[in-house]
Amino acid sequence: MSINHCKIMELPKISNAQGNLTFIEGNSHVPFDIRRVYYLYDVPGGAIRGGHAHKDLHQLIVAMSGSFDIVIDDGNEKRRFHLNRSYQGLYICPMIWRELDNFSSGSVCMVLASNLYDEDDYYRDYDSFMKARETME
Ligand code: TYD
């Protein structure tokens, strides 16, 4: 599971004079079953969120409103993505360290996740994450 598995997914967008509609179906527009949705909002300027990796969780992150950046890191390479479109999402596979920053005022970050919340699925310490990655290779 390298950084190359993580990518911007273009979501369906139905547009007319009354506005836009985007939908996301599990195992279709995202490569996993959606079992949880959560969202970040009222994030203060300058805040950094994330700072962890997941062992098994797949996620899609969408900027529902405003914008923010996501830096992903597989231990070998880091990439920064700027999210600011409600019809695009960043897919993040398991075993990827991520940090979210540069939140605009009023931004909303929605996350679709492949499983329920489980603290045991987290690496919250970068060195432990790197050790686990090394044993994978
Ligand atoms: P965390 O995943 O660390 O947030 P972020 O990566 O955005 O900084 O979660 C923050 C807190 O919220 C932590 O105490 C766990 C809790 N939490 C839940 O209880 N359920 C959830 O679905 C999520 C994502 C977090």
Q: What features would you highlight for this structure?
A:
137 residues; mainly beta; Jelly Rolls; five-stranded antiparallel sheet; 12 strands
Topology summary:
Blueprint: E1 7-10, E2 13-16, E3 19-22, E4 36-40, E5 49-54, E6 59-65, E7 68-73, E8 78-83, E9 88-92, E10 97-101, E11 108-113, E12 122-123, H1 126-136
Antiparallel strand pairs: 1-9, 2-3, 4-11, 5-10, 5-12, 6-9, 6-11, 7-8, 7-10
The structure holds thymidine-5'-diphosphate.
Structure characterization notes:
- The chain has 137 residues and is mainly beta.
- It has a single domain, classed as Jelly Rolls (Sandwich), CATH 2.60.120.
- Helix content is 8%, strand content 44%.
- It has one helix and twelve strands.
- The chain has a five-stranded antiparallel β-sheet with strand order 1-9-6-11-4, with no helix packed on it. Strands 8-7-10-5-12 form a five-stranded antiparallel β-sheet.
- A hairpin with a 4-residue loop joins strand 7 and strand 8.
- The chain is globular and about 55 Å long.
- The mean pLDDT is 97.
- Thymidine-5'-diphosphate binds next to strand 4 and strand 5.
